[in-house]
Specification:
Helix content is 45%, strand content 14%. It is built from ten helices and ten strands. The N and C termini lie far apart (71 Å). It is globular, with a radius of gyration of 21 Å. Helix 5 packs antiparallel against helix 6 and helix 6 packs parallel to helix 7. The protein has two domains: 214 residues, Spore Coat Polysaccharide Biosynthesis Protein SpsA, Chain A, CATH 3.90.550; 98 residues. By secondary structure, it is α/β, with parallel strands linked by helices.
């Protein structure tokens, strides 16, 4: 049987690790190793993993000084012995047939490099209620469910991220030499990772079947603040995507990436304006305004700055009343 290496980066998420690893132990595919990469946690992560490791020798604990999730995943890749790689966040779960089903697809289809399936999201408050989209709890699948390689897959990634990292199983041999996550792209390093694999010519295959989903925990923090941060990170990533496309056979797809950049920037600007109208003064912080200026062209600046000033005036008038 082919060994599957499951890489779990963990930072102060000890309270979730038992559930995550129990979900792995419930897999119908038993030939796996689970590498928990402790990213300098200060909670009881080490104690919890030690207990799990003693009970099941397939679990391995590796410590690193706090360096971020990307670095933790990279350390996991260096220590992985498996033919296939499964990434799993410390607070997420896998349905029981995921590994068996996806490994079988690889065995039956040796041309495949990445097999991915569907995801569902849940919250701590309602763990048994699964929804399709982490942001608006939509009732429809957001993934485009694409399979293939080359221009179609690259174009799809130039538009948006087509998968969640935990939904995929990767053939380790398909990863280019020294391939790793970019530690500078905190929060969108998984998107960058898969986009670069598409550029490298990897064959993606979508397959959804009962019991094979990745279940992702959505933490009920500030909705607007979380989305604002993700929009900013995506703009940074899209600048990198532009450079990669310009140096690849797919340079014509830069127009697709530029359109996505402009669309995301406008959503960020509108969200920022709305947050200020609701009283978030951080939107008027000089560093924040300077950042907005730096990522926009003159047309986009002319759209944003008069509106943010108008929102500030609106906020001041509301305070007087």
């Amino acid at each position: 049987m082919n060994l599957v290496s499951i890489i779990i980066p963990a930072y102060n998420y000890g309270r979730y690790l038992t559930d995550a690893i129990q979900a792995i132990q419930s897999q119908t595919y038993a030939n796996w190793e689970c590498l928990v990469i402790d990213d300098g946690s200060t909670d009881d992560t080490a104690t919890i993993v030690a207990r799990l490791e003693n009970a099941d020798r397939r679990v391995r604990y590796i410590f690193q000084d706090n360096s971020g999730q990307a670095a933790a995943r990279n350390l996991g890749l260096k220590n992985a012995n498996g033919t296939f790689i499964q990434f799993l966040d410390a607070d997420d779960l896998l349905e029981p047939y995921k590994l068996e089903t996806q490994v079988r697809l690889f065995i039956d289809n040796p041309q495949l490099d990445i097999v991915y399936g569907s995801v569902r999201y849940f919250t701590n408050e309602s763990p048994h209620i699964n929804f399709y989209n982490r942001w608006d709890k939509a009732s429809m699948e957001w993934m485009p469910m694409l399979s293939g390689e080359g221009s179609e897959i690259v174009e799809a990634f130039a538009r948006y991220n087509i998968l969640e990292l935990g939904s995929a199983l990767f053939r380790k041999q398909a990863l280019p030499a020294q391939f790793s996550f970019d530690s500078l792209l905190v929060g969108v390093e998984d998107y960058d990772f898969c986009f670069r694999l598409a550029i490298a010519g990897c064959h993606f295959y979508y397959h959804d079947a009962p019991g094979t989903k990745c279940l992702m925990r959505h933490h009920s923090e500030s909705y607007s603040k979380s989305r604002l941060i993700m929009y900013r990170k995506e703009l940074l990533l899209r600048r990198k995507i532009s450079t990669i496309l310009s140096e690849s056979p797919y340079k014509d797809l830069n127009l697709v990436n530029l359109h996505a950049y402009n669309e995301r920037l406008k959503k960020l600007q509108d969200l920022s304006i709305d947050m200020l109208r609701k009283g978030d003064k951080m939107q008027l912080d000089p560093a924040t305004l300077k950042w907005h200026f730096s990522v926009a062209d003159w047309g986009q600046r002319c759209y944003y700055f008069p509106r943010i000033i108008k929102a500030a005036i609106y906020n001041m008038r509301n305070k007087r009343h």
